[in-house]
Amino acid sequence: MKTPIAARFSSVSLIIAVLYSLLLMWPGLRLVGVSFPRQAWIAENPLLWSLGLWLWLTVIFCWMWVMVSLMWAYLPAYRISSMLQSGLLLISATLAIGGVVVWMAALPTILPMRSVNELLPLVDSLALGLLGAGALMGGVVMCWVAADLIQQSPLHRGWLLLLGAAGVLAVPSPFLLPFPWHLLAAAICWLVWALHLAWMRRLPSAYPELY
Fold first, then answer.
1. Which of the four, 42, 136, 171, 188, has the lowest number of CB atoms within 10 Å?
2. For residues 154 and 147, which has the higher predicted lDDT (pLDDT)?
3. Gyration radius (Cα) of the chain, Å
4. Are residues 197 and 65 in contact, defined by beta-carbon separation less than 8 angstroms?
5. CA-to-CA distance for 80 and 128, rounded, in angstroms?
């Protein structure tokens, strides 16, 4: 489970997902304003909608991969705090995946219904609630892990601050969604951090004094 490899996958998947969302999928993600153009776009482009959400599922998986590999490399697994971090990481990923799946499965199903105008806000609220809670917990985990890595790992402290910044930006998601710009800023911080890891051939040893 090499962290630089995980970081490369995370960087590539995030770049593709963000560009895809901004260039191709944006009409389906405009939750603020008149809903009819959004409904029409999703109904006419179900494959583009589903593909974009699959890309974000890949982003979530790669994010977990990087975080778990970092924790495994530098943080003792027997600590209570490490166990709590792992649990929060799993919960946050599960909530985020749940939000993406709700959008993927429910929206194309309700669009042909006559009651779509009543069900659409309900589906969006459920998906955004899950995504917001997942981002909140994921942000807490990133801040917590960044603080631990600053104390216990030989990784450069300045780069670790980017990991913490991504976490701080993700924390207020339940209160800021559906406006996604704070998450875009968090994604940029994460991308720079992941590219830094991806550039390394191997991580510094957790015990440099032994070598």
1. 188
2. 147
3. 18
4. no
5. 31
